[in-house]
Design a protein that fits this description.
InterPro entries: BetI_C (IPR039538), Homeodomain-like_sf (IPR009057), HTH-type_TetR-like_transc_reg (IPR050109), HTH_TetR (IPR001647), Tet_transcr_reg_TetR-rel_C_sf (IPR036271). 71% of the residues lie in helices and 0% in strands. With 213 residues, it is an all-alpha fold. Helix 8 packs across helix 9.
């Protein structure tokens, strides 16, 4: 009789390779497909006008199947926002402030190649100005954190004598963010206009010459 404690070596190898298998992999793929559908529909219709039925149909599952993964519309919205934030934060790394700013500009360039994502963000940000919107607190917090991050980067450069601007660090951060939002919106309307990343790089280089090097 085989020892009950014997473990199949192939099973160990499968478990140890870090890849999801069986129902776990299927669940992850289904959730990704649902969030993909949300991004497309939020960009086209906004959050409020998008229904569970719309999302389920585009994702290729039943309404009941969708609700199994995301019980509420708010859960769907949070999943979309978290995906977007992870993409952004993972792309911006570096120990030096100039390296960080170049990573920020590279992220701006990446957004130029993702018009659906920019459209979704633009629509949701406009909707979320209403304090009753489920994403209102998210965007309020995001703007505060992003402005603080940029101001800290500019502050470190100013301390090194590498910022030539009458504006404060917070004002420079706020103007950069406003310019970014506006340029990406224009680029949605007309993709022949100046690329946002190029214009933003030129804007910052006026005050931070080291970015030109």
């Amino acid at each position: 009789m085989e020892d009950a404690t014997t473990v199949d070596d192939s099973a160990v190898a499968s478990a140890g390779n870090g890849r999801r298998r069986g129902p776990y992999a299927k669940t992850a793929r289904t959730r990704e497909r649902i969030v993909d559908a949300c991004e497309v529909l939020y960009a086209a219709n906004g959050f409020r006008a998008t229904t569970i039925k719309d999302i389920a149909e585009l994702a290729g599952i039943t309404d009941r199947g969708l609700v199994h993964h995301f019980p509420t519309r708010e859960d769907l919205l949070i999943a979309v926002l978290e995906r977007h934030e992870h993409r952004s934060s993972d792309a911006i790394t570096g120990d030096d402030p100039i390296t960080l700013l170049r990573a920020v500009l590279a992220q701006e360039a990446a957004l130029e190649e993702a018009p659906n994502l920019v459209e979704m963000r633009t629509v949701l940000q406009a909707e979320a100005t209403d304090p009753r919107h489920p994403a209102h607190e998210h965007y309020m917090s995001n703007y505060t954190e992003w402005r603080g991050f940029l101001a800290a980067v500019f502050g470190e450069l100013r301390a090194r004598g590498e910022v030539d601007a009458a504006m404060s660090d917070a004002e420079l951060a706020g103007s950069f963010m406003a310019l970014s939002d506006g340029l990406h919106l224009q680029h949605i309307y007309d993709r022949t206009t100046t690329r946002p990343s190029v214009a933003l790089g030129a804007y910052l280089s006026q005050y931070i010459p080291a970015l030109k090097e």
